[in-house]
Amino acid sequence: MPSSPPSSLDNWWCDATDEFAFLGFSYEVTACQSQSQLNSEFADIRNNFNGRYVRLYGFCDNDGFYDDVIEAAWTNGLGVHALVWFGFDGTDQWEGRRDTLFGVLHSNPKAKFVTRVVQFGSEPLFDSVLTPAQLTTQVNNAKKNLTSLSIPVTVSELAYGYQERGGAQDVLDAIDSINIHMLPFFASTASTSAAAWPLVLADLNFFVTNGGKKKMYMDENGWPNISYTGVEPNSPNAVANTANEKGYFGLLDQHCSDLKAYAQGGIGWFAHIYSDDQEPGYGIYDVNGKLKFPFAPRTTC
């Protein structure tokens, strides 16, 4: 990064058509990590895994927290997929989170140089937080609010979230990119991660058919190594263990060229999630801070 923010975003970001393969990690912030922890773990993502982005997950409502995220991202040369977190309890707290985030994006001079996109999520359609029409209104209002910052807006959602709402074509038309929750472990026909490619393709084909050839990212994307209440499979044959968690990311590496062949330069993907401290079963690190398996995903092909 330069010593201070440039005067313009001109030529700042790589073109989205150059983004494919492994991009970085989903990173849960409900623990309200300290500035030093954010800096240390963002450095790890950048330097040890060649991550280019962090995709935020969960929420921290502490004053100034997103300023800390911005500083850690700036320091370590990372972009951020920011998130307006709805939660699962049907409250309207998300509105305050939205307004707080937008305030920081406008007030922090580094914000637009690290915030690659703002997402509404997680899974607002699947969780029936807003109707497709209401969510479309939120997306369009956010796009207007952030126009001067050139920050695009999307929704973080399952294919099924759209499908169970009749396709929610108005939402798909409104968003700037398609940010997909790819969790084949929960498919009704799931078995092992090695057999998951047809499940991945089925979800991607929905977005190819209905997404207007927009750029696609798989952001909440992974396979758990344990099953527990709230993370139960929908197939009796779905296997949750470390070999299958590792195998899922290996599957994506094996199909790097296939993913690259999609519209707008191919599909970029995130590993969900950085650590089991953030969400049990999905972390690349276990609760003791040890890698569960060697993780060096492809960033190009």
UniProtKB/TrEMBL annotation:
GO terms for molecular function: glucan endo-1,3-beta-D-glucosidase activity. Its EC number is 3.2.1.39. Keywords: Carbohydrate metabolism, Cell membrane, Cell wall biogenesis/degradation, Glycoprotein, Hydrolase, Membrane, Polysaccharide degradation. It is a single-pass type II membrane protein. The keyword Hydrolase applies. It catalyses: Hydrolysis of (1->3)-beta-D-glucosidic linkages in (1->3)-beta-D-glucans. It comes from the Eukaryota. It is an enzyme of class 3 (hydrolase). GO terms for biological process: cell wall organization; polysaccharide catabolic process. Belongs to the glycosyl hydrolase 17 family. Glucanases play a role in cell expansion during growth, in cell-cell fusion during mating, and in spore release during sporulation. This enzyme may be involved in beta-glucan degradation. Active on laminarin and lichenan. This is glucan endo-1,3-beta-D-glucosidase.
